[in-house]
Amino acid sequence: MPSAVPGCGAADGAVGGALRGGRAAGRVAVVAERRVAASALGRGRAGGAGIPGLDTIGVATIGRMASLRAAALVHAVRGLLAQDALRALLALLWLAASMVQAAPLSPALQARLDAAVAHYEAGRLAEAQRAFAALARRHVPAAQYNLGVMHLRGEIAGANPAEAERWLQRAARGGFVTAMFMLGRALEGGELGRRDLAAAHDWYEAAAERGSVDAMVALGTAYYLGRGRAQDAAAAAHWYREAAKGGDVGAQYLIASMYEQGVGVARDLRLARHWYEAAARQGDEAAPGKVREIEARAAAEEGAAAASAPR
């Protein structure tokens, strides 16, 4: 990837530079400038009173959304309370570090960023830190982000959450969508020394509005469950639908369920079938059965309507 460290979001963007990881140590990948990288973050269970009518979709469906995502990433998300799982999450998130809306780097800066990532990949963390710090001082958002995540992962001498947040916020203010998403994730999970759901979802909203599919899912879940946002089925449907358009299979299944039951949207079996079919094409095991169920129900309703029509 171009040059960013563990933990990337989604959006059209410019610079590359993310450390990606297989396992806790992480691995670097180089991505071309202006590449759009898809990062999928499944949403696990969460508390909160259910929106009326959502009981049959509800928390259980949100939980199954996670099972539809890449298994390693899901396990990392669900294991946020364990250090190993947190490290795995951060490493996997780096996989999409090119998803930003910052300005493209000059070839010289991009080369330096890639070299810093190479240091990280080779385990030369001190060299990587120095290189990222130098670029961060030159206002390179990907380097600011990488430096923040190295603090978050405890890979820097004197690492602390306050420094992690400072650098992540600088990257976010520089247009790095991945940093916006990561701030939301870290504030939601308490990795910055405190748990602040309202602030977390402000960052999710900023990232979602800039094209992060993962943030759309997170924001939809917030509205869906009333966790970090006031409970609002219509707003949940909006963000799940946007995430579904972005290819998130869990969101596709959930918005289909909402159309099927008329929760947050007008009941529409045609659209329910459309999104169940989209989820089925991506390998959702339950979706094909739902497609058949919707087709049978639609046929029965048409038959009943025809039988009751005046002759």
What would you note in describing this structure?
This protein has helices at 58-67, 71-78, 83-93, 107-121, 125-137, 141-152, 161-173, 177-189, 197-209, 213-225, 233-245, 249-261, 269-281, 287-308, and strands spanning 3-4, 17-20, 27-28. The protein is mostly helical and 311 residues long. It folds into 2 domains: 3-66 and 73-231, Serine Threonine Protein Phosphatase 5, Tetratricopeptide repeat; 245-311. A 3-stranded mixed β-sheet has the order 1-2-3. Helix 4 runs antiparallel to helix 5 (125-137) and helix 9 (197-209) packs across helix 10. It starts with a strand and ends with a helix. 54% of the residues are buried.
What is the CATH architecture term of the largest domain?
Alpha Horseshoe
Strand content: under 5%
Question: Which strand order does the major sheet show?
Answer: 1-2-3
* Uncertain spans: 5-15, 18-101
The Cα radius of gyration reads 21 Å
Could you estimate the helical fraction of the residues in percent? 55-70%
CATH topology of the largest domain: Serine Threonine Protein Phosphatase 5, Tetratricopeptide repeat
- Total DSSP E strands: 3
Separation of the first and last Cα atoms: 67 Å
Which H/E pattern describes the elements? Answer: EEEHHHHHHHHHHHHHH
Shape: elongated
The CATH H-level homologous superfamily of the largest domain: Tetratricopeptide repeat domain
Kindly name the structural category: mainly alpha
Question: Mind summarizing the main beta sheet?
Answer: 3 strands, mixed
Mean pLDDT: 75
